Amino acid sequence: GAVVSQHPSRVICKSGTSVKIECRSLDFQATTMFWYRQFPKQSLMLMATSNEGSKATYEQGVEKDKFLINHASLTLSTLTVTSAHPEDSSFYICSARAGGRQPQHFGDGTRLSIL
Amino acid sequence: DAKTTQPPSMDCAEGRAANLPCNHSTISGNEYVYWYRQIHSQGPQYIIHGLKNNETNEMASLIITEDRKSSTLILPHATLRDTAVYYCIVRVGSSSNTGKLIFGQGTTLQVKP
Questions:
Q1: Rounded average pLDDT per 10-residue block, chain A, 115 residues
Q2: CA of B92: which chain A residue's CA is closest?
């Protein structure tokens, strides 16, 4: 089946640090990738959608300068949380889709803790 | 804004069928119904999707009513490992690159011994 790998699985860092999370589609080419965030006991919230080689489209209320997304190839997208603060602590999950009506497949998430 | 309505929680006995309902009364003709589940502290897992015909795969069956306003996910023989939050999602957007999944609150299924 389609596999999406996300790295790292857990990050703990100091306030003010920038953190990069990688998302790779291992056995298919992802024309579209998605980044979600999930707070405890809440559902997933879509942050942004990106197509390979294009700028990401951010959902309302998500700061594009805070959450930098790069979808450089058909198998790799990165999310950089710039100058992270404790309120950015969350579970970040990426998702990838081959295209058309293909289902989205999700990574196992990155738990980010900012001290 | 979720376009689906699901019960917040359900229980099911181990070995029995779990039937999870979902209402999507405003679904458009070209929108698919997707089902995912999320086990605690993991990313969502794709289960099944459909447009208007019933679908079955190795994990589950999806029954969609003729008017497409509701559907039911069936896990034929639930096990303890099926305990998870199940999300029914109508995919927003019809073109190949703009469709996205917007998650609602889902149904927490508890499978009991």
A1: 91 96 94 94 94 89 95 92 96 90 91 96
A2: A101
